[in-house]
Amino acid sequence: MPGYSAFTLVRNALSYHENWQRAWRSPEPRPEYDILVIGGGGHGLATAYYLAREHGINNVAVLEKGWIGGGNTGRNTTIVRSNYLWDESAAIYEHSLKLWEGLSQELNFNVMFSQRGVMNLAHNLHDWRELNRRVHAIRLNGIDSEILNARQVKEEAPILNVSRDSRYPIIGASMQRRGGTARHDAVAWGYARGADARGVDIIQNCEVTGFVIDNGKVAGVETTRGRIKAGRIGVVVAGHSSVLAEMAGFRMPVESNPLQALVSDPIKPVLDCVVMSSAVHVYVSQSDRGEFVIGAGSDAHVSYSQRGSFDIIEGIMGALCELVPMVSRMKLMRQWGGIVDVTPDRSPIIGKTPVEGLFINCAWGTGGFKSTPGSGHAFAATLAAGEPNDMAGPFTLDRFRTGFLIDEAGAAAVAH
Amino acid sequence: MFLIECPWCGPRSQTEFHCHGEAHIARPKYPDAVSDAEWADYVFNRSNTKGVIYERWVHNHGCRRWFNVARDTVSDRILAVYRVGGKRPEVTP
C-alpha cells in the first residue's frame, strides 16, 4: 500500500492527480474465509482492520450489500465524545476516544478528527443537578469533563442566547474538551484501506440472503453472489440487525427507528465547539465548510424508510431558533435519515448469539459514530477469541435475560 | 409525515398521534411459571419487522383513544387501521 504524505501529494500534483492508485481492491469473493464480517460500515470495517492488525487474522471478508460507508456511517452528525455515566459505557467510549486521538496516524488517512469540545447545556434546576452528578461520575472514571456557568457558556459559544427570559434559559453546561467531530466518510475509507492492505477482502454489492446453519453451528452465508463458507461470522449491520437475526432464527431486543440530521447553508465560522441540549433534544456543530450540522431526536415508530417525520424537523428547528436566534434567518440545504437500532437500555449489544459461531455487534443506536474505533476493536477481539473480551463482556445479549442492564437511557437522559 | 385514519376522528396528521410499539404482545398468563428467557422475550424482544408491522397508536392530541395500525415499515404506508383487541387484518404491502 503506497503511503500518503505531503511528498506523494506533490508528486501526484506533477501528473495532474491522474495516477493515484485505488485505495482498496474490489475482489471476487472466495468460496471460504476464516471469518466473515457482514456489514461494511465503519464498525464492520474497523472490526476487519483490527482482526488483521491486532490478531493477525487476515483471511477475512467484509460483505456489504451496497457500498461501504453508505449507511449510518454517512448519515450521522459526526460527533465524538465519551462523557457517559455508567462505568461499562465510559470504558468502551473512552477506549474509542483514545483510538480516535491517534487514528489519522494509525491509518495514514486523515480522518479530520477535531477535538473542538462538546458542550451539554442545562436549562433548568433538574438538568443542572443531573449534569453536575454526571460530570463528577465521569471525572471519577478518569475522563475529562468540566462545568461551565452561563457566562463561560457565552464565551465558548457567543451565538447562544443566554438571556434569562428566553424560552430555554441556559443555566450552565458540561464540557468535554477532548470531544469533537471527525470526517465520517474518511473513517470508513481509512479502515477499508488499512484492512485491504492487510489482506482483507472488501466485497461490495453483496447482500446476505440467509445463513447456512449446521446442527446449531453457523457454517456460512448465502449471498447474492453465491454461498460463502466460514465457521465464524460477525454481524455488524446496525438498523438491519433484527432482519439478519430472523434469518438466523432468533429474536432481538431491538427496534429500528429513523434518526434525522440536517445541514444549513454555509456561513463564516461562528461556532467552534459542539453544542448539545438533551432537554430540547438538539445538537449542532459547524462543519469545516461552514454549514451547521444539526441533529434531532428519533421517531418513535419502527421504520426502515431512511426518512424521518417532518414534525421532528419542526420541533428541532423551533428549539434551535430559540437557542441560536441567528439560525432563524438561515436555510436548510439537506435533510436525511438513518435507521438506528435501539435497545430498551440504550446500550449496545456485542457478543455471542444463540447460534454457535455467529456473533453480533449492534444496537449502538443514536451513538454509533463516536464508538466506531472502540466497537471495532472490542468486536475484533471477541471474534478472534470466540469469547467477549473485558470491554465487550457487559454488553452481552444475555443481559436482557439476567437483568444486568446498562441503563444509559434512564441514567443520563441525554441525546446519544 | 403520514396521515392516520383515527377510527373515531377520521384522517388526521401524524403529529397528533404517538406510536407505542408492537401490538398483540400478550403478557404470560402465569408469570411464575415461565423461564427467565421466556420472560425476557415478553418484556424486551420485538419482531421489528422489515415489512408489515402491527402496532399500537394513540390519538393523544385528539380523542386520546388507542387503536392498532398495520403499516409497511419500508414505505411507511398505512395498510389498515383496526380496534384494540381485534384480529390482525390480512394485508399486503
Rounded to an integer in angstroms, the radius of gyration calculated over CA atoms of chain A is: 21 Å
Low-confidence parts of chain B: none
- How far apart the termini of chain A lie comes to 36 Å
Q: What would CATH call the architecture of chain B?
A: 2-Layer Sandwich
Count of the separate structural domains of chain B: 1
Strand count, sense and barrel status of the largest sheet of chain B are: 4 strands, antiparallel
Mean pLDDT of chain B equals 94
Descriptive overview:
The complex is a heterodimer of chains A (416) and B (93). With 416 residues, chain A is of the alpha/beta class. Chain A has twelve helices and 19 strands. An eight-stranded mixed β-sheet of chain A has the order 5-6-4-14-15-16-13-17. Chain A has a six-stranded mixed β-sheet with strand order 8-2-1-12-19-18. In chain A, helix 2 packs parallel to helix 7 and helix 3 packs across helix 10. By secondary structure, chain B is mainly beta. Chain B has a single domain, classed as Folate-binding superfamily (Folate-binding fold). Helices cover 9% and strands 34% of the residues of chain B. Chain B is built from one helix and six strands, in the order βββαβββ. The chains are: A alpha/beta (416), B mainly beta (93). At the A-B interface, helix 11 of A face strand 3 and helix 1 of B.
Features:
heterodimer, A: 416 residues, alpha/beta, eight-stranded mixed sheet, six-stranded mixed sheet, 12 helices, 19 strands, globular, disordered C terminus, B: 93 residues, mainly beta, Folate-binding fold, four-stranded antiparallel sheet
